[in-house]
Write a structure and sequence with these properties.
single chain, Alpha-Beta Plaits, 2 helices
Length: 90
């Protein structure tokens, strides 16, 4: 399944708000997957100095990843497909 990065600008976000957003993302991904359209939140990275997050999802399409984020009511600035590279794969 393809991987996608969801880029967010979240000025003023705090750890409690991030945790709440994570629960919503996980829940919405599970709901959409139960509807027969697999999507999974994999992980997120928060960049405190710039109030940005990079959230990684696995799904059949960009549209499914976008729907999961919209259902979770988490704003985003961009969604793009990514190619995963790890040291172990080299």
């Amino acid at each position: 399944m393809p991987f996608f990065v969801v880029e967010r600008e979240l000025p003023g976000i705090n750890p409690q708000m991030l945790g709440s957003a994570a629960v919503r993302a996980k829940t919405c991904c599970a709901e959409i997957s139960e509807e027969g359209r697999p999507v999974r939140w994999v992980r997120s990275y928060f960049l405190p100095e710039s109030s940005q997050t990079h959230c990684y999802f696995e799904g059949d399409s960009r549209e499914i990843v976008e729907e999961a984020n919209r259902r979770a009511n988490i704003p985003f600035s961009r969604i793009a497909q990514v190619v995963e590279m790890t040291p172990e794969a080299l």
